[in-house]
């Protein structure tokens, strides 16, 4: 198979995080720094730990992905970003209380040097937060210009060869796709006229893509999932992906739903509830932000089960999702699911799942993988929506003429086959 021409991962890779002082970002950054010092294991990271079969099964060749795919080295990563609050990432990591002080102190000096740039913030889009370290400008166009300048300055000051931007910020209030999002011309006009439906996340995405920088959307916000941004990404040949990191409860749904469907087991109802603290829980306590998250979480089951094809099994499923802010838990999220299913001759059964997890501990390795894979995509000349990275998202972006793939295992095969193509190996269909 012809090998894709991938430029080498030479020089430093700048990773700019929106929400760099949040629980997810500080856990991601601290964990990456600890890992590269050899003081921790990056559990959950496919780029660092997973193997990939090369050739036929009888060849028994299973090298680690990082040994055969030209990914950036962790030692070449430089971190920076923006946040609503001025504290450095060492202070932020202690405040988040995800990692122990013992672990945070292993990289105290490095974390303390990462100080956030002022954020683009609009109270209308995140009702429960009150930013104190924010940019000001007469128009949203001017704010985008400030973010572009931030990216250029960071790249120059840190001697970076390449940059990737990743959104680890809060969920914004639900914003439906409007006329301002449908064309690049309309969007740029909207920036200059302070259109009310252009969110801070849109501004970051516009600035990054216009600078030729890959953009990863870790929240369910529209952000880069709009025609205007697809147009911009095509112009500048930039990879974009999202949206909403697939971590706890939804990850389980993308595993259990395929099981029900492949065994032709019926489903009557699926009730999901969550309790969580930290900034994420506080933001999602607002109905507007919850609506955005709810849309992301509800789409999974119907997509996988395809009720239009199996009305007798999935034509009348009652699906409910609840998220409750509970400060005592901090980052220790609990997702509880009650599933009412039925089997042979319609006899009823139940499944109950209680997943007690650390949200940021699950999200951190996803951030690392996505940063390395989008940088790889950029060096491989890939642009636009990177649907081969759907594995990492609750609500994967996809081309308008395609249907999103939610099945975790199909997503995983697609991810690895894309990597195989990049290094000139045969893709695997398991028929051998």
Brief write-up:
One of its GO terms (biological process) is inositol biosynthetic process. The chain has 432 residues and is an alpha/beta fold.
What does this structure look like?
The chain is α/β, with parallel strands linked by helices and 432 residues long. It has two domains: 13-245 and 361-423, Rossmann fold, CATH 3.40.50.720; 249-357, Dihydrodipicolinate Reductase, domain 2 (2-Layer Sandwich), CATH 3.30.360.10. The chain has 16 helices and eleven strands. It has helices spanning 23-36, 46-49, 65-68, 89-96, 101-105, 108-112, 140-157, 184-192, 200-210, 227-236, 249-262, 278-284, 287-305, 311-314, 359-379, 408-422, and strands at residues 12-18, 77-83, 117-118, 160-167, 215-217, 239-242, 266-276, 318-325, 332-342, 348-358, 384-385. The strands form two sheets. Strands 3-2-1-4-5-6-11 form a seven-stranded parallel beta sheet, sandwiched between helices. Helix 8 (184-192) crosses helix 10 (227-236). The longest helix is centred in the last third of the chain and has 21 residues, at 359-379. Its EC number is 5.5.1.4.
Helix and strand content put the structural class at: alpha/beta
Report mean pLDDT, rounded to a whole number. Answer: 93
> Largest sheet, if any?
7 strands, parallel
Give the domain tally.
Answer: 2
Spatial sequence of strands, sheet with the most strands = 3-2-1-4-5-6-11
- CATH fold label of the largest domain: Rossmann fold
Beta-strand content estimate = 15-25%
Global outline:
globular
- Count of helical regions: 16
Instruction: Report the CATH superfamily of the largest domain.
Output: NAD(P)-binding Rossmann-like Domain
Helix content: 25-40%
Q: What are the segments in which pLDDT stays under 50 over at least 5 consecutive residues?
A: none
CATH class of the largest domain: Alpha Beta
What is the correct CATH architecture of the largest domain?
A: 3-Layer(aba) Sandwich
Using the CA coordinates, give the radius of gyration.
Answer: 21 Å
Order of helices and strands: EHHHEHHHEHEHHEHEHEHHHEEEHEH
Report the count of strand segments. Answer: 11
Give the terminus-to-terminus CA distance. 17 Å
Transmembrane segments: 12-34
Pfam families: Inos-1-P_synth, NAD_binding_5
Organism: Dysgonomonas hofstadii
Family: Belongs to the myo-inositol 1-phosphate synthase family.
